[in-house]
C-alpha cells in the first residue's frame, strides 16, 4: 500500500492512502537515507510504501520504502549539532509567519529561513501576522521589512487571524498546494490555521509576558486537509535555524539580490567581504542592498550559530535602524 505521511511523532506515523484510509504505521527495520544525517528518517509530507501487520490485535502498518522527495526543509537537531531534523517534505510553498514584537521576529531569523528555503528549492512567502495589534511604530517597522523583502522578490502578505484581514488572499495563495506554516512559538500559526479552517480547533496559548516569547502548543508536525482545496503542515514553533551543510562560496547564491550581482564581481569566487571590485559591496554602499541582509549573510558565513536562538531581536533591530538613518 502507498500513502502520505500526515503526522510523525518520531516513533510512529499516521499515513493516509489515496482512498482516504488512515493507518498508524511504524518503520520496518532501519532506514538510512543517503547523504542525510537525520534524527528522523521519515517526515510529514513523505510518500511511503507500507504493508499491514495483522499478527496482533491492533492492525499496524510497517513502512518499508520512502519515495524520492522533490524537496524537504531541515533545521539543526536541538541536541545533536551535527545531525539535522527534517521538518517536512514535498512542500509546494512555505509561509514564514513574522510578528513585530509579540514575539519579535529577527531579520537574522527571517534570512536564515529564506536561505534554507532557497537552498532546498522551496518557494517562500512572508506573512506579517497580528497586524490588528500594531501601533504607529510597529506599523513603520513592518512596512520597512515588507519593503526590504518585496524589493528582493519575496511575496509579503499582511494578515490578522483576529479580524480576518488578509485571510481570503492567503487562502487563494494556498489552494491546490501543500503549504507549511513556520515561525517562532507564539507568532500565531495555530490561531491562523483555525481562522482558515475553524473546525480544526487547534490548541493555542498566549504569549509569555515575562519573556515575550511564545509557549509551544504544537509538539509534532502534522498535515491537515482544508475544505478549500489545500493541505497545510502545522509545525512546532522554532527558536532559530542553524544553516546546514553549505560551502562558504555557495551561501551568497541563496541571497537572490547577491546572486544577481555575482557575475559583476571581479572574482568568480568572491565572498563579498574584503575582495576588491565586489559588486555586492558596491551595491551595499549605494543602499541598494539592506544592511540587515548583509549582516545576516556575514553571520551565516562566519558560522555564527551560537546566538541565532538566544539573540532574538536587539542586534537586528539596531542594524535595521542604522539603515534608515
Describe this structure in words.
The chain has 325 residues and is an alpha/beta fold. The chain has nine helices and 13 strands. The chain has a six-stranded mixed beta sheet, with helices on both faces. The chain has helices at residues 107-119, 136-152, 167-174, 189-196, 248-251, 256-259, 279-285, 291-301, 314-323; strands at 2-8, 13-17, 22-27, 47-53, 60-66, 72-76, 84-89, 93-98, 123-128, 155-158, 178-182, 222-226, 230-234. A hairpin with a 7-residue loop joins β6 (72-76) and β7.
Give me some keywords for this one.
five-stranded mixed β-barrel; single chain; 325 residues; alpha/beta; 25% helix
Summed up, what is this model?
This protein is an alpha/beta fold. It is built from nine helices and 13 strands. The strands form three sheets. It has a six-stranded mixed sheet with strand order 10-9-8-11-13-12, sandwiched between helices.
Number of helices: 9
Look at the structure and give the mean pLDDT: 82
Q: How many strands? A: 13
Question: What is the string of SSEs from the N terminus onward?
Answer: EEEEEEEEHEHEHEHEEHHHHH
Secondary structural class: alpha/beta
Indicate the overall shape: globular
Largest β sheet strand count, sense and barrel closure: 6 strands, mixed
Extract low-pLDDT stretches.
205-219, 306-325
Please indicate the percent range of residues in DSSP E strands (runs of 2 or more). Answer: 15-25%
Task: Name the helicity range.
Answer: 25-40%
Order of strands across the main sheet? 10-9-8-11-13-12
Radius of gyration: 21 Å
State the distance separating the first and last CA atoms. Answer: 61 Å
